Amino acid sequence: MEKRNLTNIRLSGDENSVIILDQRLLPNKIEYIELSEAADMYAAIKELKVRGAPALGIFAGFALYVLSKKAPPPKLKEYADYLVSARPTAVNLEWAVSRMMKADDLKKECYAIRDEDAAMCAAIAERGLGLLKDGDGVLTHCNAGPLATSRYGTGLGALILGAEKGMNFNVFVGETRPLLQGARITALELMNAGLDVTLICDGMASAVMRDKKIDAVFVGADRVAANGDVANKIGTSGLAVLAKHYKIPFYVFCPSSTVDLSRKSGGDIVIEERDGSEICELYFKERMAPEGVKCFNPAFDITDGNLITAIVTEEGFFKKVRANEKRGNHV
Q1: pTM of the full predicted structure?
Q2: Which domains are present in the chain?
Q3: Looking at the annotation, which residues are catalytic?
C-alpha cells in the first residue's frame, strides 16, 4: 500500500483549537476535525475520535491549553474534571490533566507532554526490538501504534522501528472486539510501515499459537497497577492465558506514566463499560444479533501480573528478561 503520513493530534495555527484525526473513520477515510469547545473535546474522547492512552494525555494537554485562553482558573478546573470523566480506565488522561493544572505555563507544558511521549516511545521501541529476531512471528491486540501515541507507538514501536532498519516480522493482528481497532487501525499502521500483516479474528489466537506461528505477544496498556496487573483492551487477558499455556513470552509496552502506584492491584482499576450496540450493530450493514438480547461490553480487562513476561517502559523492564531468548526461557 502507498505510505501515508498520519498525524493524530496538533494545535491549529492560531492555537485556538485542537485538530485531531477522526480515528472512528479509519481505514477508509482520512478526516481531520477542529475542536475548540469543552463539550466537543469531551465527545471526541468519549466517542473514540481520539483514543490510545498516551494520545489521550497529549490531547488533554492541548485541549486544556486551548480552553485556558478563554476560561478563568475555577472554570478550567471544571473542564479538567469533565475531560477526565470521559474515559476512566486510561491513566494517562488523568495524569496529563493533573500535570497541566499544576503548570505555570500551559503552552510549554502541553508541548512538553507531547515531546516527552515521543522520546519515551522511541526508547520503548529500542528496548522492544532487542527482544526480537529477524523473521519472528508476533501477535498483537487492539492498537498501540503511532496513532495511539505520538511517534512509534508502544506495543507496535519495536515492529515499526525494526521495519525502518530493514528487519522483517510476520505480524498477526487480532481484530479486537468490540471496536475492531486491530482490524481498522493496527493493520493500517503496520502495513503503512511495510510489514507483513495477517488479520485474524480474536477467537483464532489459540490456533496460530498452536501452529507455532507466534514467537511473542506484544500489547500496550491503559493502566498498570502497583503489583504488575495490567488493564488493556478487552481480550488481552485471554491472550496472556493462551501464551502461558503455549510457553510464548507475553510483553506489555507502555510509558512510565501509565504505571499507577495508587492502584494496588487490577481490582482497583475502574473498567469502562460501553454501549452494547457496539457489539451487534456498529460496523455492520444490518443488526447482527436478535433484538432484545442482553450485551456485556467492557472496553478493557485485567491481565494478572503473573501472566506477563515483562512490562517494558522507557526506563527498562519491570521483570528481568534476556534479549533475544525464545519461548519459555525468560526469567
Answers
A1: 0.91
A2: 9-118 (1.20.120.420), 130-317 (3.40.50.10470)
A3: 222
